[in-house]
Queue: 2 jobs
Job 1
Amino acid sequence: MSCRFSELVVDCADPVELSRFWCAVLDYVELSRETADDGIEIGPPSGFGGAAPTLVFSRTAEPKAGKLRMHIDVNPVDRDQDAELARLLSLGARPAEIGQTGEEAWHTLQDPEGNEFCLLHSRLPELAGD
């Protein structure tokens, strides 16, 4: 018996703004809301339980402190890394400096609330059914 990675919960100040950003990044849709804007779950159009995990944005008043101990890595699926970097920056991502050497094959970015994530180099196929 084993487990599957099904959801990632992200504490944030503004679930609405962060869910919009990540929906655009991942081509996800809003799946549910706990209340007006206190908790929003996003995921692939096929919904919860498929091959791709969902993201749950949960409102918190606590500010982000320091570098995240866990972060999201994303890969382009329909364009090269440079074109995807330009798209992510146009959506509101910002470059993040966390001690890179400049020789990395990935780009370290921040979402609108400063959460680090990496854009990797490899182009992946889209998931079937999503």
Note: The mean pLDDT is 90.
Job 2
Amino acid sequence: MRVLVVGGGITGGVLALALAQNNVEVVVAELRETLGGVGHGITLQGNALKAFHAVGVYDELAEHGFAFDKLRMFRADGVQLMEMPAPPMGGDAVPPTMGALRADLAGILARRVREAGVDVRLGTTVTAIDDRGDEVVATLSDGSTETVDLVVGADGIRSAVRSMIGIDVQPKPVGMGIWRVVARRPAAMDSSGVYYGGPKFKAGYTPISDELCYAFLLEENLDRAYVGEHPNGKILKEHGQGYGGVWGEVRDSLADDAIVNYQYIEAILIEGPWHRGRTVVIGDAAHACPPLIAQGAAMCAEDAVVLAEMLTSGAPVDAVLPAFHARRIPRVKMVLDNSLQLAEWEIHPDTPGADPGRIMGQTLGALCAPA
């Protein structure tokens, strides 16, 4: 089997590695000039860690990250409301949760992909897909062509592959934006924490190493000039006033010129088939959820491991693709629907019956089932 993977992020990296480990010839076309990741942090639930364990990168990631087994919820002033144990979604081989730097995860995946013999084409993407029934001839932006058994679009929420195969589903704004920053980890921070009831939608943090943490603030969509990474520490500190406890300690520790990432939060779900012929989209190209349950990377990594498992089972590609969609859609739709419900409650906190803790607990409990 020969597979072209378009996109070398978490989804494409895990898929390429899983396939190569099963003797599949893989070409990765990545538009960026490097496979490195952005610098802010990421919260990885146990099911994400299980996927990384399946492709052999968990142990190295664990050397850099910070593992924990609970989530704490606070009032804006720092008074604890509840502590919720993190379910063992990844089984016994991995911890319930881990914080890490995205750049560490991306770097480990990039090196392991190359070590596995994957043909990585940087600064390159697909420009045309010619599906001939029993094979696909893909034209790349460098003018070369690749004849493969399958093309996989792992090229993110604004997937070009999705558009090229005629799936006209576009991401929609959720109505909130997120500030992210890496800072020194206070000694008292030993798990993720989220703060409710303050002047913005929500604040929170995750420890990502012995020395560092990742803090975030959710608020309304701001001017597009804020989008991206900028030395906006002073602005984040101003917007984060009104929160106490450990989050307030992290905020106050930031330099005025600290590098801060701000992004609009968007969501997308292709409810119908994710494939056309021998081309399929997975990960954020097929489903991207708000980061309210910290399941974005997990759903992407699960997609990659499950698709690789099914492709190397001996079943024909044209049977695998619909079966893959049928297996994945109930799980990713549950995560997306519940994440959107949480976002709605955080935008409108006075909604009768709003119960974020219940939704989070039910979702994480359900995700203990195998992917």
Note: The first strand starts at residue 2 and ends at 6.
